[in-house]
Records
---
Amino acid sequence: MTRTRSLASGLLTFSAAAVLAFTSAGAASAAPSPSDGKANPSVASVSVDAGGAADYWTPERMQGAVPGDTLAGKALERGNRTSPALVEKGKPSSTKGTKGKPTIAQSENPVSHIGKVFFTMGSTNYVCSGNAVTSGNRSTVATAGHCVNESGAYATNFVFVPAYDNGAAPYGKWTAKGLYAPSQWVTGGDMTYDTAFAVVNPDSNGKLLTDVVGGSGTAFNQARGLTYKAFGYPQASPFNGTSLWSCTGKATNDTNNPQFGTQGIPCDMTGGSSGGPWFIQTSSSTGSDGLQNSINSYGYSGSAVMYGPYWGSVIEATYTNAAAS
Amino acid sequence: MQQPPEPHPDEGSVSHVDLDQSPEEVLEYWTEERMAEAKPRELKLPEPGPGPAGQD
């Protein structure tokens, strides 16, 4: 026998499911009461106060949520039924679909040497992005200056998590033992030099970072106007920081603040992507295989351009000091 | 609260700091909850204003 349900019973089931979902998950607030629809007597509805719902759904609660088909089974057990004739009456109708606003940034699979960095400044915990680079100590990570030092004060609790993906850390967490930044960034916050390098400890087995995850080559004092692919873990809306994203484009100078000497590419990655690597794109070296030549540094409100510092001799000296430590 | 480490004296164009925290201490600090709640660091400059009127 074919089982059918009326629109009313279907929506009632949905409403009941919503109520059950709230209550079975711990009932952060009292369940709302359903009301009969006045415009259409076959429709029931409920008003839900959305305030606090976003805060309620922590990652732990989302992981522990019971699959909804459990509720569908319960609805079937209740045995609400109606005749097929009632279900099929009415004129054909449809509504148009809509698409969310697309992002310039493209979703990427994890890359072993690109990851998130977590650190503390003052009493606040922050997250940025970073990339392991080839170095003499095989333990050097490139990131943004503003991810290691603010107004002369260095970060603490600094850790690099390569290939981070939705909470997973497949290559472990690598703690920093030294942080290096251009003096011009540390003493004056000069945007020209918003780059830093962290030197990390060996892991618990004594292995060194780039022996485990690999490392990107670096390039300094290159031509301007190259084509780059930038990677990062944007976390601010509309992103959520769970996965890797990228932007690709030809670099142009920042005409708003030419004194910075920075270059920008079309990109709408948000906070959290700071410090992510820019790789030079050539016919023989593409994607994350290219040489690193800058990092995600800053953008302007209302503009979808990501700017990165020009890696000249000062940033080269910073890398050289870190890599040899 | 952990005090910010003191940077080394001026070494030309490069500043650096040695962190004296043990790896175990740092790894213990970063609980899943703290990682999930860490704020994205962001440098967003004000939207550039229009150029001077009458100039192309």
---
Amino acid sequence: MVDALVSTTVVYGSLFGLMCVGLTMTYLTTKVPNFAHASFVVVGLYASYSAFWLLKITPYLTLPVSFLAGGISAVLLYVLLLRPLRNRGATIVHLMIASFAADIIITALIQIFADFLNSNFGSKLFAKGFNPYQIFTIPDFQIAGIHGLTFTAPVALVSITLSLYFLLTRTRLGVAMRAAIENPDLAKVVGIDIERVYLLSWFLAGSLAGISGTFWVLYYGANPNLSTALIVTIFSGSVLGGLGSIYGAVVGGLIVGGAENAGTTLLQGFLTSHFGSSIGQNVSYFQKGIPFGIMILVLLFMPHGIVSVDWRRKFRRIVSPSRGSEASGEVRA
Amino acid sequence: MTTFIESILLLLAINVSIYVTLTLTLNLEFGYAGLPNFGKVLFVAVGGALGGAASYFFSIRLFNIPTHGDPIAFNAAIHSATQKIIGTSIPLSMEILVFALLVASVLGGTFGFLVSYPAIKLREDYLGMFLLVSGEFFIVFMRFLYPIMGYPGQGILLPNVFQWGDILYGLRDELVVAAFGTLAVITYLYHERIARSPLGRTLRAMRDNEAAAAAVGKDIVGLRRRVLIIGSAISAMVGCLYALYLAHIDSDLFTRTEFTFWPWVMVILGGAGNNVGASVGTVIFVLILVSTTEAGALIQGGGTLQYSFPISYEGSVLLIVGALGAYWALHRRKRLAIGALAVGGAILAAGVFSPSLPATVGTLPVSILRVQPIIFGLILVCVLLFRAQGLLPEKSSATIGKSKIRRLIGPVITQGGPPGHRDSSESKVDKS
């Protein structure tokens, strides 16, 4: 029981770590609080799901598909919508509402795709117990009775964080990205192609979200409206991470996702044993109360996020919010 | 035929009168005070759920209706007993209505205050995220309120306080329109009064330059909180009226798309910071909403719209090509904007309504309910890209004449950017 709790908590936290990294990255580079970030997860998820059924391969081999699908949809969103808006000097509220509209549009397109799957392959999928509208999962491999995702998701999070670290500190492109984050005008002056950096950050954000979609569907259920539930935890984790540091986002996503999973499971056990199973089984109704509560506490007591508390010294040499005033300085109005 | 037209007109009137109030409150919050309220659905749901439940339990208490100890399980019996009493009684119906509206407005204001507490001091992006998260949390949490509002997917029947219009005059929907319309007119006059008062000018000053407003002694947090509380109380009343109009509440009734996103589209489309603009935006939005729904129903040939009607793959390709072409044309040459919109619209229509095209490959099942969010999303995006100030832009304050302002401060007032594009106008000022 405890093992299952620990493993699902680690997996859930790792997935939200991956999602929060992307949101924070696009926020850092282009200053867009991307309300459509969760829909990249769902895009990647459906891409992976379709590839899995079409090619009949092990689900982990569909990771490149979801990587590309998420990344391309993020780049399209940026190039078609957010970059023109930014060039016209739109305010941050207009960028927010534009990404909100993108979320609505992408969700509707995914619903149409689910309709398409249902009408053309419905009987085949139903026969195997998979309904593209309802909650579905892809079978995962198992090692000694333990879900394979328990190993792969944390490994993916750690390896991606490490590669981001090397990208940002050891490569020219990464250094250019940090420069563009700290001071876009100065970066432009010294000859950095800022647009390329922004495109890269959007591609990476979308593709990491797409990958987490593949992992998500291996264990947790999915349906076309998943993004509305995901975005709550993603925002909460990113705010806990301070919205100013990629490593903060990893930690924030891990903490908030893990707390949501562990808290829900523990609360369910508590409620079932004390108030009966009729209340215990409805625990998912206030599952999102955990990220919501964490967000309230963070906003009240440390609005600069976890990075402003004790991580500053350790990561002084990396992307740090204390440098630029724009990155996360003036959170308070 | 007249009945069809009448029913369409009633549908338009009901939708306009519901949404115009919501849009006006959002316009006060976003257009005047610059508060990005992405949690509108929270306040509507508070009013609808808690105000609706209050009307139910108030009517039980008022008429001493036997509940057999379980007001949810015996909902149908209690409802019919209540209707026997209030069915033809105007004063009793009004009593319940007024009580429910009072409860809804007080609860809405309270929730506005509560939500404002952690986030109101923060920058607008944090505030917007927090309000969105609050709304998402609450509409899921509402399902847990089944002891007062029924089980998810079933809900409870509320006292039908508009039934006397049906029984006495045969005019229930007209009565509902009158009730919503009264609320809308009062809200409009109130908001217009705020806009023309010193408070309205202070709000605009705060929106345009918060630091300057704070520096001259304006209480930014207090002002924002006051605006959020006013807007939330009125939104909760709309939610409560909506629940009483349906005479039914269910925890899945209020969605983010319908009660947060749609008011945003209306405000941006009509013009933020302009009450007439917001109202015009609402009317245009509802016209598109109702006409697309009716067109979908016609093409589909009856039945519920949950079932999809097929369009050919060629049609869907046309649709995508048309949308991309319109986007490109709008982007490259602004003068072709209207022409490109017309062409794009025609191709879109061809794409959507092309079940007669020869389907060589197969068909894509598309319901109009799925297409509507895309249409409204694209409308919002196009307005943001090509006319960010909306159809009717914000006007300067109506305190002194425009010519006098122009004489006083020169041509700056005509050069200033649209209200949404503060950055560009500020940078212009900086350069000079």
